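Ligand-bound model needed. MRU.
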Amino acid sequence: MLSPIRWQNNKLQLLDQRVLPLREKWLSYEKACDVATAIQNMVVRGAPAIGITAGYAMALSTIQHKNYKNKQKKIRQDLNILKKSRPTAYNLFWALQQYEHFIDTNNFSLQDYLSKAIKIHQDDIKNNLKMGKIGEKYIQKNDGILTHCNAGALATGGFGTALGVIRAAHNNNKIKKIYADETRPWLQGSRLTAWELAHDNIKCCVITDNTAAHLIREKKVQWIIVGADRITANADVINKIGTYNLAVLAKFHKIGFMVVAPTSTIDKNLKKGTDVQIEKRRADEILNFGEKKITNKNYDTYNVVFDVTPAKLVDVLVTEKEAIENPNFNKINEL
Ligand code: MRU
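Prediction:
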């Protein structure tokens, strides 16, 4: 199974998602602070994959500081650096929280840190397979599916959340056509989703983000299926910028809008989506197209990379435990 993260000879290896699909390049890491920079720079991205990576980074931290007198200070420092790498994906904080107790109790055993990271990684794959089975039941024969960003194997431990449901439905011969939004400005759709589907011999059709409304009006899409970076207590969904547009379109055109995310993405501590810190990134991500300059570098930009979809626009939230239709505060609480 395709996975963007591997642990080999006490080193962490990440598939560099900045250069896919033109190059398949693996980068090797020995220091937690370098992994934090890799997360910040999008070598690895996608909420569950970021959480898994942070777990392995904590294992690296115990190796790096094994001969240091005040290990507690150094390892806590690494944990805090990792916490600051990206602000929105909840899985990062969910994973790191599991190491707080080790640090508090002066447990710096590599075996314990690594076992935890491996468990986070393997559980994520298991959950994705479960969500695939649960979510694909909603898909009817010959449905057209539109997805946004990359919520696939590359964004998780393997198999994917939204793309996991799409894979499962494809394996049951249900899907007429898969459409992938290119997802400006990082192009997770045209670079990553298209690549990983091609890797599994699954055809997909790339569209520009602004084609979605036209495509839906042509009745080519019956379900929009996306992942999530964070889901708040009231079931609001924070996901890649442009997700909210799609949810509004789905409501207007009366087609299905499905969010697929493990419970590790649910942040019960925040009441509503607008409480979440939305990441803003550099201007050049918009003013350039990849490496290529396309406009004046001094222009003002507003590069917010996630948006908030209100729970009332979500038809189904698929988790590894169950699918919740019309999710809301009470249903999330019960879950
Ligand atoms: O900025 P990115 O590429 O990390 O954003 C990723 C997304 O928005 C995904 O849809 C989300 O993390 C879910 S991944 C299973």
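The two ends are 29 Å apart (CA to CA).
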